[in-house]
Design a protein that fits this description.
Shape: globular
Protein name: MerR family transcriptional regulator
Distance between the termini: 50 Å
Order of helices and strands: EHHEEHHHHHHHHHHH
Largest sheet: 3 strands, antiparallel
InterPro entries: DNA-bd_dom_put_sf, MerR-type_HTH_dom, MerR_fam, TipA-like_antibiotic-bd, TipAS_dom
Oligomer: single chain
Radius of gyration: 22 Å
Keywords: Activator, DNA-binding, Transcription, Transcription regulation
Strand order of the largest sheet: 1-3-2
Number of helices: 13
Helix content: over 70%
């Protein structure tokens, strides 16, 4: 039994473009092709794709996935055991974070102010208040900072909810491209980077391509920013920086 690339994409929840990319880089060659040259995937191919997607979900770069799967001494059962251990650890961490979010939601509903210990017990030492103070220290007095202060002063609670949802959506789309193995300098990734730049310009301050690439560098260099993006998807901070730079080069 064999399956077309479209059927496999539907089974696995990936795009046809992703499967073509995996074939092109040698990560997943289809087991056969029909008389018209179209890709056909067998059960062994589907098993390998499942392993690839497990490792991608765990944040492994494609080249490391290839090295792991192509190791002649590797035991398929050991792959599954390693993935199970890693996923179990991630589930535990996510459960802790979900419990903390639920606690925060309940406290807000009841108008209860959380202690610093309660607020940051899961998220480590990142302090939003201190971060805001640093932003002012670093950029206070600049035109961008003053413009951002003027705009955000008028935002309502509903404005913030809408803006946060839009920003999260951009991050999710970029993380999905990363998960699919789409290069950071691809048209798709650069287009999302451009939307990211325009979002900042529309909601906060005029964001030139130079300023945008500077933000991208900060996402990687500043461990607090990096941690935010790494929590969304391992490798996302670097991926976003590279896409933002590629977009600037394309536009300029």
């Amino acid at each position: 039994m064999s399956y077309s690339v479209g059927q496999v994409a539907a089974f696995a929840g990936v795009t046809v473009r992703t499967l073509h990319h995996y074939d092109e880089i040698g990560l997943l060659h289809p087991g056969e092709r029909n008389h018209a040259g179209h890709r056909r995937y067998g059960d062994d191919d589907l098993d390998r794709l499942q392993q690839i997607l497990f490792y991608r979900e765990l944040g492994f770069p494609l080249d490391e996935v290839a090295a792991l799967l192509d190791d002649p001494g590797a035991d398929p059962q050991e792959h599954l055991r390693r993935q199970h251990d890693l996923l179990t650890a991630r589930i535990g961490k996510l459960q802790d974070m979900a419990a903390a979010v639920a606690h925060a939601m309940e406290a807000r509903r009841m108008n209860v102010r959380l202690t610093p210990e309660e607020k940051f017990e899961v998220f480590g030492d990142f302090d939003p208040d201190a971060h805001a103070a640093e932003v002012e220290e670093r950029w206070g007095g600049t035109d961008a900072y003053e413009e951002s202060q003027r705009r955000t002063a008028a935002y309502t609670k509903e404005d913030w909810k809408r803006l946060t949802a839009e920003f999260d959506g951009l991050h999710r789309r970029m993380a999905e491209l990363l998960a699919e193995g789409v290069p950071a300098d691809s048209e798709a990734a650069m287009d999302v980077a451009e939307e990211h730049r325009q979002y900042i310009g529309r909601c906060y301050y005029a964001c030139s391509y130079e300023a945008h690439t500077g933000l991208g560098e900060m996402y990687v260099a500043d461990e607090r920013f990096a941690a935010i993006y790494e929590a969304i998807r391992p490798g996302l901070a670097v991926y976003m920086r590279d896409a933002m730079l590629a977009n600037a080069v394309r536009r300029l």
